[in-house]
Design goal:
Family: Belongs to the aldehyde dehydrogenase family.
Helix content: 40-55%
Strand content: 15-25%
Number of strands: 21
GO molecular function: oxidoreductase activity, acting on the aldehyde or oxo group of donors, NAD or NADP as acceptor
Domain Aldehyde dehydrogenase: 57-534
Radius of gyration: 24 Å
CATH topology of the largest domain: Aldehyde Dehydrogenase, Chain A, domain 1
CATH architecture of the largest domain: 3-Layer(aba) Sandwich
Shape: globular
Bound molecules: 1,4-dihydronicotinamide adenine dinucleotide, magnesium ion
Distance between the termini: 82 Å
CATH class of the largest domain: Alpha Beta
Active site: 287
Number of helices: 18
Pfam families: Aldedh
Length: 539
Amino acid sequence: MATMLRTSTSSSTSTSASRVLGIRSFATKSDRAAAPLALAQRLSGKHFIGGLRPAKSGAVFDVHNPATGETIGHAALGDEADINDAVTLASRAQKEWREQSVRARGALVAKCGEVLRAHVEELAQLTSLETGKAIRTESRVEAGLISDTFSFFGGLAPEIKGQTIPFNPSVLTYTSREPVGVVGAIIPWNAPLLLFALKLAPALVAGNAVVLKSAEAAPFGVLRVTELLNQVLPSGLVSTVSGYGKQAGTPLVRHPLVKKVTFTGSVDTGREIYKQAAEKLIPVTLELGGKSPMIVLEDANFEKAVNGAILSMRFTRQGQSCTAASRIYVHEAIHDKFVAALTEKINALKAPFPLPLSFVETLLTERMGDPLDEATDIGTVISKPQLDKIQRYIALGKGEQGATAHECSALPTDASLSKGLYVRPVVFTGISNQSRVAREEIFGPVTCVFKFNDFDAVLDEANSTEYGLSASVWTNDLQKALHATRKLEAGVVQVNQNAVVQPNLPVGGWKVSGLGREGSLETMLEHFTHSKTVAINFA
Ligand code: NAI
Ligand code: MG
């Protein structure tokens, strides 16, 4: 079956073709992995709590390279004792941090951005090694975005201010914004660096300390980020503990000194965290899943919409994105042409980012391949359980009467990747809007294209989901575009684009897609500070 783990052992086409034409051959797989592997091994068995140190229990768990199945290192298996150490240290550090002037805090956070910028390549390689995301199309882009996030929030520091309120001529009344204390952050593995940065940078600028519980499958990238930030920030202000959800995540949420939790991940875990936070009555931000609609009208710029579908679906990240456009509604007049163009483009995907390779080499590349190879567009999914989950959904869709699975691209042929967690992108047509494939978050490279002819009906259909994270509409008809932006139930609605995360844009979900927002000044103030009202009677 095409979507199963690939087992072919023939040699890589790109390498052999390069040899034939006498052009520069790529570094071998083992060369490329050497530096990030050494880094993963140096970080093995460690949390960062005031410095790199092992779990109190001494226990560890394996971390794999999803492209080869090899163990790349062992992460420290955190539990309540490690969390308690990190939170206690954070609480102490936060008391001093909050007393620094806001501009001094902002300057240090912006400095973190500079340090991270100097380590983009290293972080990108480590991220590709542990997550299987392609370095050129994904990991390097993500590693670049995080330094930008720190620079942006660092610059916002002086905007942490309140208001004066007219009350009584002899009473001066104003609000001020104060830090909440220690923030507990819990993240998933799909974009670990970015999701950490979007929580950490605003929390720090606002005067808080942060303890991160990293994702089981991707502990090293964020651990290295934590180590780098600790070159700049006061000791103890930012700690990272690795481990499992129940063993390390739950004690973080429950710790009495943790005054705010910010989480990205699945809906079920979000609900669990919300319940635990309710016991303590602390605020939470929850960035949960999505099943995001993309609506393409008859008059849309066709080429732009097809490219938009590829970017929106994050095919280069194997669809492992909460905002993935996994339900694409296309007007019947252009539906068949759209599906043909979409599948053709996925088959010959050229990444939308500048390529450091020569044109000839680009033509010879295989799109799915070694995540650390510059020539690769699409890497692997994160883990065997995720691969199994995706394949179950693909099988379900294939079994549906009237459905067609357009399987795109080709699995890599390099023997060293034969154990890699690769899955071919699938575009379903003819599937029911009521099917599980069309309603549940797959978190893989699987999208459904539906045909429509009634604009109002398609807006209702787009909204007929429990999710409400992101939506887009593609048209040049201004009236229809505005109508859609009013009707669509989602935290982010875009017209003729589906852009990536920017630190100045508030992003978050309606319905089960979450609570609260990330990104932007307002979000920092709302989610990482308390408002205090002060009234001074001088009569
Ligand atoms: P998950 O929600 O279980 O894990 C995310 C993070 O929460 C991890 O760090 C995990 O250790 C932690 N965690 C798990 N249980 C916890 C608990 N009881 N208390 C505190 N922390 C806990 O997501 P998982 O298992 O990695 O992925 C499962 C599915 O979730 C995916 O297939 C996808 O559909 C969805 N997902 C959505 C994401 C998004 O960005 N919205 C990101 C990752 C997964
Ligand atoms: Mg889970």
